[in-house]
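ok trying again, last paste got cut off:
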Amino acid sequence: MATVVDEKRMDIVLPQGEKAMAVEVMDFISELSQGEQRDFMNFLQGAKFVMTLGKTSALRTI
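nice, full thing came through this time. structure:
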């Protein structure tokens, strides 16, 4: 059975120092149920969206 992470897996080149963190995150995600993985991905997408709002707001003040 494919997990949410497997379905959306992308090849990304990371700096060598980030590889250990990426492995740790993937290990954490693999321990989650499929529903928990979906919730976690939704959370990350929301956080990314909020970060873009902050950048957009900062540009408007200039």
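cool. Helices lie at 4-7, 16-30, 34-60. The chain is about 75% helix and 0% strand.
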